Amino acid sequence: MAIAARAADPRRSVNQQSVIVGTGPLSPPDVVAVARHGVRVELASEALAAMAASRAVIDTLVDDGTPHYGVSTGFGALATKHIPLDQRSQLQRSLIRSHAASSGTEVDREVVRGLMLGRLSTLATGRTGVRPLVAETYAAMLNAGITPVIGEYGSLGCSGDLAPLSHVALALMGEGDVRAGSGELVPAAEALAAAGIAPVELREKEGLALINGTDGMLGMLVLASADLHRLLTTADLAAAMSVEGLLGTDAVFAEDLHALRPHPGQMASAANIRSLLRNSPLIAEQLTSETGRHRFTRVQDAYSLRCAPQVHGAARATLAHAESVAAIELGSAIDNPVITPDGRIESNGNFHGAPVGYVLDFLAIAVADVASMSERRTDRSLDKARSHGLNAFLAADPGVDSGHMIAQYTQAGIVSELKRLANPASVDSIPSSAMQEDHVSMGWAAGLKLRKAIDGLTRVLAIEILTAARALDMRDGAHATGGTAAAAGAEGTRPGMRSSTPISAVRNRLRQDVEGPGTDRYLAPEIEAARLLVDDGSLLAAALEALPAVLQ
Question: Active-site residue 138, yes or no?
């Protein structure tokens, strides 16, 4: 699947004016637009009608003598306790107040907005029994930029992301703390009043409907998927730059070779690397005119170069599976109990986060492996014994200068952390609620650690690109002066580049923010500048502008 637009520039402002929330599923781009870019939401008329219809079902149950979970009973292990009519509003308030029990570091704004949008989408299906007023107020909070404060700990990922969702419901009631649209920390009542939004007094079933869902972990999955489309294509770019910088061969990326093992992700990755290396003067210089074969003495490149499509492709396959799970979840009505289309109110277990938790963990494994391979390519570029003529550590004057020696240490430290983050959260379960909730998914924790892993992969790829560009600059400097790469470029001159056209474009874009080779400089700001260019898609955009075809 061609993903040029997403790969090139996924975090910049979108032109979309609003997202319509109806009875059907949201799309992943809708979630990213609202959660990350602040696009407004609107409720469709059919969603308002569906909510009114299911609320009418709840209203008919209020006065009958049959216990109905969440309507006239307590919750969880207290489900057998009947609640009198005059205490049911208090029941809903107490539920939200007691469940808004998170702790720890405040989670990111985009995570909270993704969670809010997911819950709004489920309310809009008309299967939860809430009044349209509740959904309209959620939409108003999103549009006003009101973001409830949620700590990182509190969700076990079983009966929904209970604690995180409860903090949002608490803000709906005008209680707790929120971030205003400006980012300022203020009481919820103050933020609602400033936006002209009236707090909602919850009625039967509504408190429960607001907190029974996988919306937090699902939002993190959708956001992570968007990021990984960009990062996996960036990994192909980084690998191509390292192949070129290490005077490797592009023959192993030939289409007919990958057709022998036609995994779609592998074939897409190989196609990307072929496109990025096409007509590379540096690679062409390694061929003899008589045979067209490489004249270097090594028989094969190392696995970290030669097998990049296989590893990056496996990560793409994992991402494709994760997105298939997200697509189903985005089209689901997750609550307990639910109002069925024929008017029944039924308990169920659809709130369990196992499907989402598993794929969040799968992605963390793939991220760790892609980063590990990237770090190995960087290490080869810095090792004089394996870099084929480059300075030790790409230093201008090895011994006096250390070059990128410690940049690779930074990569190694991140990769080690990513291996720890790849340990799955979803294999754990701690019983809760007096053994009523005796198996939980830990999906929320899986989502949070995947977000850390994606940040780590971004940094690792940035360092590889920074290093590969330096290696290429030094080879160009040696060629221009007629010397060796090991003696080239102490002053960071910019001779004519011998890279392929797209890699030259990437190097030029990087050099707008980071100087070329020279004596040792303060390196941390250069790593951060490269990270930002990977994170906002600028380097991919530069490559795409120079290519006649899209990257996949």
Answer: no
